[in-house]
């Protein structure tokens, strides 16, 4: 009863914020990115909440519990530094260029920046890979809800999709931002509580944490864990973490936050807030260390299958350290963490599908030229329809989800961001761009990532890189796509600048 009361209170608060978002959503542009009137504090907390999915709170501590310091370095400082660095590199000029072109999404920004509707259509199709993460988040929320509220899978799916899709449907970006402010605030409070419990455990133990870990397994405190499954060499731990953190910033629901504000000063402020909050969230991976003080490996055995479940580390730790009522409160916040990412994905996926896929195709096939006002009106209707389709599809898939959906989701989204990174970096850093060059590098990065993940271990058996880790294959693909794109982009930009200067001098001579 206590769990249901808290959950209903959370639903009521979120629904009220969604209603406020509805009153501020006047057209498709407001539905997609708002009107640029959001405060840096709200955008910063929203960005952190929507970036830190339930994986940050639940899954990552399990990797640290198993692989120790090497996994922690990859998931905490490595990824955080890459993510924050990339956002500072891209956000300022991305906002200025996007504002001047009235861009609504990343594919829209790319299509207008390169003056190529076909390029925008290419990224709109790639963005459909984000649906796998929608399914993952909905499935994860359902699992937590079933255990917390005692409902079945079908009921949990119906509650989740009806509620989250409902407030996004009516309020769009404003509902996403306002509800994420609530969810992010709850997540900050829980993060401080959990990290505080770990600090208390470490301080109250007679045996230092590092000595305890070394007793269990010396590799747990090794900077490179040779026995690790995914984090077992310098490349996967130190290089891949930073690079994958950088390219992850190119996700549509992350980078487009720069379009929510109207000045570089606002961007600087919300990125500062985001950096502090996001580092705090990433530090939850440290629970993997704390759990070794109170959670024996036997407590992580699934009684139904007898298999070791590292994804239970956070849950078992919380149940061990906190009383039942506190665990219930934290579980509600874990639902909020997953919903905060889910609503951001729903806004970006529906907006991109409507604006850059459906409207793009309609413009190509229709004989009648529509005004901007007509396009925005049609886009809002299509966006609403897409939300309903996504909800129904996610419901049906999660009735019997594929076993490898989690892996597919990570591989697919990494493919999306390594393909987008060359286009965004070249478009931001150079004034004159070549769509042919960037499109080729983008496709090359995507193909490299997928081929190495699927066939790298078989085709390159002599290489010690862990191709089973999607971050490794995505990092290689990023180097393959981004470095040539930047080099060729510099050449194209320089040649055109020289050509412009030559033409200017010729015109001056002719005037004489």
Q: How many beta-strand runs?
A: 0
CATH class of the largest domain: Mainly Alpha
Integer-rounded radius of gyration: 24 Å
Which parts are unreliable, with pLDDT below 50 for 5 consecutive residues or more? 501-512
Structural class of the helix and strand makeup? mainly alpha
Structural key phrases:
512 residues; globular
Please summarize what this structure is.
The protein is mainly alpha-helical and about 500 residues long. It has helices at about 1-25, 30-35, 40-50, 55-65, 70-100, 105-115, 115-125, 130-150, 155-205, 210-215, 235-250, 250-255, 265-280, 285-295, 315-320, 325-365, 370-400, 405-430, 435-460, 470-510.
Tell me what the structure shows:
With 512 residues, the protein is an all-alpha fold. The protein has 2 domains: 2-401, Sodium/glucose cotransporter, CATH 1.20.1730; 402-512, no CATH class. The chain is 79% helix and 0% strand. The protein contains 20 helices and no strands. It has helices spanning 2-24, 28-33, 40-51, 54-67, 69-101, 106-113, 117-126, 131-149, 153-204, 209-216, 234-248, 252-255, 264-282, 287-294, 313-321, 324-365, 372-399, 405-429, 435-459, 470-511. Helix 3 (40-51) packs parallel to helix 13 and helix 5 (69-101) packs parallel to helix 11 (234-248). It is globular, with a radius of gyration of 24 Å.
